[in-house]
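mind reviewing this stuff:

——
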Amino acid sequence: MPGIVFDCCVISNFALSGSLSIINGIYQETSCITDFVSAEILKGIRAGHGGLTAIPEAVKAGWLKELSLISRKEKTLFGSLSISLGLGEASSLAVAACRGFRFASDDQAARREAGRLDVRLTGTIGILAKAVRLRLCDIKTADRYLGKMIGHGFYAPVRSVRTVL
């Protein structure tokens, strides 16, 4: 199974809602963040968002991989994407495009760029819906996680995962 690379918003939503286990359950051995996203997470932890500590713990545990831009192609694409996107989104999308990974983002500009690059996409709501379909949690639990995400500032296009099932 090809990898999936998460931007800061999506991985943070799951960490802050206490549902990072859903990411591990769906994307076992294929979950990745870039070192730029890791840096954003560390800034969030320093700013007092303690729930984010689950992300570096997942990296330390080994089920969430931290990647760096390696190839010239990735670095070049990152350079052009970072003009209009944040560094986390730009690095994640560059990795996804160059390595054939899925890209997990809720950022509209990043999603538009992903579409332009023919990169497969998902986002927070799509992942919650997939968790329900795979029976990793029921709709009530998914909606409870979504409510916690919203409580932490996530702008959700729906109030219930049922809407997209």
